[in-house]
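$ run holo --ligand "manganese (II) ion" --emit tokens
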Amino acid sequence: MEELEGYAKVGRALALILSKWSSAIREGDSLLHVAEEIEGEIRGLGFKPAFPVNLSLNEIAAHYTPPPEDCSVVQEGSLLKLDVGVEFEGYIADAARSVYFDDRHERMVEVARQAFEAATKLMRPGTRIREVSKAIYETIKSEGFIPIRNLAGHKITKYKLHSGVDIPNSPTLSFYKIKEGDVFAIEPFVTDRECSGLVKDEKIAYIFSFKRSVRTSSSLEKRILRIAAKDFHGLPFCARWLISSVSRKGLDRALSGLVRKGGIYAYPVLVEVNSCTVAQYENTVFVTNNGPVVLTEL
Ligand code: MN
Ligand code: MN
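-- output --
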């Protein structure tokens, strides 16, 4: 099966990277340094990052990638979600680990992993998505935690990280039936029971992706649009990836201009509504007639 081989190749590279980095990161490490090291490693292997490395601390659930002059570090006693994507010729693997620096986070992180396991067992042809969501929801609740209800796993296709079918972390009316050959990222997000269990958009976004060609008089905006469509194949990107080919000056303004004109999407930083700490565990899973193949675990 050619498709499985393509996905297995990027999946294995990602599994190795996550295994290495989830034990290498230390309190005080610069997020910018970690993100650039990991992205450099992916490129060094002959692959591409499928999206900017996400390093989301504590109550930040997702979508934080360090901006070009970022000074933030891994805080003492924190919980860090390391979420990485690897792409090769359109095949994408997406996976995340929660790294923690205080034992009080241990159970929440373990419950996110258990919810992933419960969901993955159901990834067989014929299963409906809502059964998978139910398994995630019930595993998390039965352990005394709650899921983040407005975050979801997602179907992956060639060059498409989010291909239109979601696996929400709480049951919905989704009627989609899983098929042989489907590839899904399953990603339970867990927080404490007394929290909202919802994330909201921050006002700032560091991750973008191509939406459509729009008219603009700015040559910088034109260049960014071309790079976003052609070099990044419509996959998510960040300012750090542009400063080698366009000038830093005016870059932030050009990005917000393009968002306003509808040329690119912005993915705002997502934080838990009550500022509660959030844990995540994610792997990419390939569905065969013999059952699920987890591509991003060693
Ligand atoms: Mn991810
Ligand atoms: Mn994902």
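-- notes --
The chain has two domains: 2-198+273-294, 205-269.
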